[in-house]
Amino acid sequence: MQYAGLVLPQGKRAWIKALIIAVFATVSPALAQKPAKAAAKAPPAPAGTLDRIRQSARIRLGYRSDARPFSFSDTPGQAAGYSVALCTDVADAVKSELGLTTLNVEWVPVTVEGRFAALQKGDIDLLCGADTRTLSRMKDVAFSIPIFPGGIGALLRSDAPRRLKDVLSGQKPAAQPNWRASSIQLLQTQIFAVIPGTTAESWLNGKINEFQLTAKVVTVNSYDAGVQRLVAREASVFFGDRAILLDAAMRSRSANSLHLVDRLFTSEPVALAFARGDADFRLVVDRTLSRLYASKDFPALYAKWFGTADDNTLAFFRWNTVPE
């Protein structure tokens, strides 16, 4: 063994080698290990929806008072509608699931602007309205299996120009090569009404940008207000959920002067909404809906609010039913 040119005898070399091994065997573990830190205490997991309901014996169901036939309120504090009926079944299922003798069902009115925030803050347990499941909304809330085959429709006056009705319904006149250009020119002169915070608003804004339209857009705070805009000739077309547009038009005193375009501009399945990350509550909701869709009572429930379901509608519910 040689250190800096110094040659050591064989016995001395063996002794130094043994010493080096002993030193590293003692020191290395101490050098390799850092002082242990106290383990960070994880925050307690938030109580799930079912846990909160069990503890309070209360379920809070949010609903919009202006989304008939899905949810509405003819009498202050009293909810009604298709989505409300579904949520009532969910409440019964929760009561049974938790083995509660009593369950207080509290109906909480929510606004278009604040409905999802109410879920995030825990002000409501389930949103019973007419809300489309979208990817952007799924960043904030979760959705049940679909409850209705919704989509955006268009309502206008019966005396609206025939060309405008054709353009909105997608009917292309024969022997008119410049139909697309003339259609855009026609749309440029219209006034569109829409409810802010809805998928109809984002869709309409997207189309205006896509076709570079200069048409005027006015916002209204309810479907009834949108109908009034049409009747008063303060808007040419009112875009919104087609099922709600139909109901609002039929209830209007000016129903005979209104025309609902026979077209869905989008396919937007409607669903119930609840807080994200709650698999147990989701299971109760989806199981309740799946069992209801398969029951003999569902066709009558659907018909009460939307009329007799056709074959395509019935197929929609069969496709979205989750098997046990």
Poorly predicted regions: 1-9, 19-45
Mean pLDDT: 87
Number of strands: 16
Second-tier CATH architecture of the largest domain = 3-Layer(aba) Sandwich
Q: The biggest beta sheet, please?
A: 6 strands, mixed
N to C succession of SSEs = EEHHEEEEHEHEEEEHHEHEHEHEEHHH
The portion of residues assigned to helices is: 40-55%
Structure description:
This protein is of the alpha/beta class and 324 residues long. It has 2 domains: 49-150 and 269-320, D-Maltodextrin-Binding Protein, domain 2; 152-260, Periplasmic binding protein-like II (D-Maltodextrin-Binding Protein, domain 2, 3-Layer(aba) Sandwich). The chain is 42% helix and 21% strand. The chain contains 12 helices and 16 strands. Strands 3, 7, 8, 9, 10 and 16 form a 6-stranded mixed sheet that branches. α3 (82-98) crosses α10. Residues 1-9 and 19-45 have low confidence and may be disordered.
Summarize the structure.
This protein is an alpha/beta fold.
Write the layout of secondary structure elements.
Blueprint: E1 2-3, E2 6-7, H1 10-32, H2 49-56, E3 58-63, E4 66-67, E5 71-75, E6 78-80, H3 82-98, E7 104-109, H4 115-120, E8 126-132, E9 142-143, E10 148-150, E11 152-157, H5 162-169, H6 179-188, E12 191-194, H7 199-210, E13 216-219, H8 223-231, E14 237-241, H9 242-251, E15 258-260, E16 268-274, H10 279-293, H11 298-306, H12 311-320
Parallel strand pairs: 3-7, 3-8, 12-13, 12-14
Antiparallel strand pairs: 1-2, 4-5, 5-6, 8-16, 9-16, 10-16, 11-14, 11-15
Helix pairs in contact: 3-10
